[in-house]
Amino acid sequence: MEIQRDYYLGKLIDRKHNGQIKVITGVRRCGKSFLLNTLFYRHLQECGVASDHLIRFAFDSADDLMKIGENPIELQRRNRKVDPIRFTRYIMSQITDQEQYYLLLDEVQLMDAFEAVLNGYLRKSNLDVYVTGSNAKFLSSDIATEFAGRGDEVHMYPLNFSEFMSVYRGDRYAGLAEYMLYGGIPLVVLREKPEDKASTLTALFNEIYIRDIVRRHRIRNQGELEDLLNFVSSSAGCLTNPEKLKNTFHSVKKSRITSVTINKYLQYFEESFLLEAATRYDVKGKSYIETPKKYYFTDPGLRNARVSFRQYEPTHLMENVIYNELRMRGYSVDIGVVPVMEKNSQGKVIRKQLEVDFVCNMGSVRYYIQAAYSIPDQDKRIQEIRPLRKIDDSFKKIVITGEPIPPQYDDHGILTVSIFDFLMDPHVLD
Predict the structure, then answer these.
(1) Which of 73, 91, 179, 249 has the most CB atoms around its CB within 10 Å?
(2) What average pLDDT does the structure give for the chain?
């Protein structure tokens, strides 16, 4: 079964011939290679590009390596990378005229000095270059700097809910429950049985994600790294910081790990796109509060796999899904803090901080969003919209609920939409 990724395909199409190297990044197994080598390749063919002007090369393919005179067995035995001179000679032999050529490279990090080679191709006006890779170095969030500012990044997430529903056989209610449990990694979505989905997610962690981080950063105590990931998984969507996590280690694991080491490990998880951190933002003071932060998984299934599917918490999982959807749509997303002064039961004025789940910005557009899995009565609604009513600017204020209700505004101008409409219709917030 083939899953279409039209959103990302459109991004590649929009970037054709822009004079930069198109770099597809994202967590491993999110579908980067399929996007480049199947969907985009097919698009170019449909646009009339001749096959001999479409050059595909996979650095993990024995067939492709032998084309340039490399022995894949020797490469593995000697633990060396592909010779860039052999590769360059091969590419130059394929370019026989001045017409437009498209170079699609997969696992390019397996070639030595790949940055220099690709930067050299920028000087050839008839060569349009697209690359993807899947080791920890190439997935680093600062990959664009590898190309001296001449890399145009297309960041890819696992399937969002609308992409998931395009292949799910069932209604959207059962679909959302399964999506929040097993996530949107294409390899997992295409598995039929629940036990196969769960085992695939576990294997991805054990065989790919953790291994990449350990190898890249030469981590000696892998157990501490995995324990940290487990702690973050258990508290995903909750405010935390390295000091708090250090105290948890000390009390639960009797570990002497430092907050400095924990902070480094958190950065490694972010660089590999397993996690994203949301920073708190003082809405009235218009300033950022660096700590504590909230951490969200790039895929809910990966989070659930780390806790062995024992902590299925719809409230936090729905919040994680909303966060990922907003990020995929291009918004920067912060956690809103709204300071208020109120009288307590003794009549004393005290300072409180109300929280807005998400402050979303893109250009001149801003949304304040509260995520409420359920709003059973008026008291709960008053509680949810209270932080929004304390914000005195004119930007749109929204409540996203897990209940299947039609979009509606209240007397305060606050829009309430269901999670299903939000995930399936990118314009419902407009």
Answers:
(1) 179
(2) 93
